[in-house]
Write a structure and sequence with these properties.
By secondary structure, the protein is α+β, with helices and mostly antiparallel strands. It has helices at 11-20, 27-31, 172-179, 194-199, 222-231, 269-280, 290-298, 338-347, 349-361, and strands spanning 5-10, 34-40, 68-73, 76-81, 94-98, 100-102, 106-111, 116-126, 129-136, 145-148, 152-160, 163-167, 207-210, 234-240, 263-267, 285-288, 308-312, 327-331, 372-376.
């Protein structure tokens, strides 16, 4: 497909941009003071694919680490077991995990008029106020009370775009924990049960605030984490509270018109120090999941990783220059999703198209309860120091 192109004028940006777009740049070209490089510009239809519905995993496997792993690298595609991931890393490599915990964010309730409502808490704004999606036959006005789970009333506040502010009668988190339901993704067809309450959380989940699991982490059990540590692989942690927007497809053919959803994140100083040590030793920095990657890259927008956090709306598409992450563990993503665009930016658009075609042909299991990939960043400098 012929695509329009964007112009990269500075040599400092050209090599990274070319790698991300799968374009060869010669050493002579990369060394000139000003390089005119035309990169393809992608549109929404470039990230569509047909997925047989039976490949959408509806339930987790009996063991977390029993999933399959598709290793994607410049050398090709390699079908593995997820437990093999220990063999693919070296002592001193650093894995960064997202320790968010999924809230019991889904509620069913009633309006004062008797009409039914469904509420999905997106995030806490303060101790007693939340931002939420509200589904009803007619949007509730400000001031209306909603009875949730036949247990307590919330008061509707002002609108915030597609969301509503809801005022709880007391601290929101204890009420959410006690009366809410686990919010499974929309493509999982069964209602959440006690098994999901365990398996749709990572074994290291710590800080409640997400409405979706950081699903790449679901493959790790305590035994696998210990094997990694015994080998000398370093583990570090950050928090990004995954929002419902992670499931929303992009709807504008022109990607520049897409408004990215925001998510709260925090990268602690300990993780910044661990990344700096790994980089100084020439080791890999592996993000476990796109949420970990987005947090690390959001905290690296100055060009170097700094501790802190806030709201991020980072939208990564092919041509993005990565600053921190060199490898990525991730599940397979929805067609036309921002996450499919992200992995295409990370590993290369054509390489990801080939990987997804291979995964479908080989009957990999897709999405949250599905199988995983290990991706290698396309930028040449990410290979420095690799064993």
């Amino acid at each position: 497909m012929d695509r329009p192109a964007k112009l990269i004028q500075h040599a400092a940006d050209a090599a990274d941009a070319a790698d991300a777009a799968d374009i060869a740049v010669t050493p002579a070209q990369a060394g000139v003071p000003c390089l005119l490089l035309f990169l393809p510009m992608y549109s929404l239809s470039d990230f569509d694919f047909n997925l047989p519905p039976e490949l959408v995993a509806q339930f987790p496997l009996a063991e977390r680490s029993a999933s399959r792993l598709l290793q994607v690298s410049p050398d090709g595609l390699n079908d593995r077991s997820f437990a093999d991931v220990v063999e693919l890393f070296q002592p001193g490599d650093l894995m960064v995990f997202n320790n968010t915990r999924v809230m019991n964010a889904r509620f069913f309730g009633m309006k004062e008029s008797g009409g039914k409502v469904e509420v999905l808490v997106e995030r806490l704004l303060d101790a007693t106020t939340v931002l939420a999606q509200v589904r009803a036959s007619k949007s509730p006005p400000a001031g209306m009370k909603l009875r949730l789970a036949d247990a307590f009333d919330v008061t509707v506040g002002e609108r915030a775009g597609e969301f509503f502010t809801l005022h709880f009668p007391s601290e929101a988190m204890p009420l959410i924990d006690a009366h809410g339901k686990l919010p499974l993704p929309p493509y999982i067809e069964h209602a959440a049960d006690a098994h999901d309450a365990s398996r749709y959380q990572t074994v290291y989940a710590k800080h409640p605030g997400a409405v979706a699991a950081p699903t790449a982490g679901l493959h790790f059990d305590d035994a696998l984490l210990k094997r990694l540590q015994d080998k000398g692989v370093q583990l570090a942690w950050l928090t990004l509270h995954v929002g419902a927007g992670t499931f929303q497809p992009v709807r504008t053919e022109n990607l520049a018109e897409h408004k990215m959803h925001t998510e709260w994140y925090e990268v602690p100083q300990e993780t910044v120090d661990a990344v700096a040590s790994a980089q100084a030793a020439g080791r890999q920095v592996i993000a476990v999941g796109t949420t970990s990657l987005r947090a690390l890259e959001s905290a690296s927008r100055s060009g170097r990783l700094v501790a802190g956090g806030g709201q991020t709306d980072l939208f990564i598409t092919p041509g993005y220059q990565f600053h921190t992450v060199t490898r990525l563990v991730t599940n397979f993503h929805l067609p036309k999703s921002t996450l499919l665009m992200l992995v295409s930016a990370f590993a290369g658009y054509e390489r990801m198209r080939a990987a997804y075609a291979h995964a479908i042909e080989q009957r990999y299991r897709f999405f949250s309860y599905g199988d995983a990939m290990l991706l290698q960043r396309t930028a040449a400098e990410s290979q420095e120091g690799q064993a």
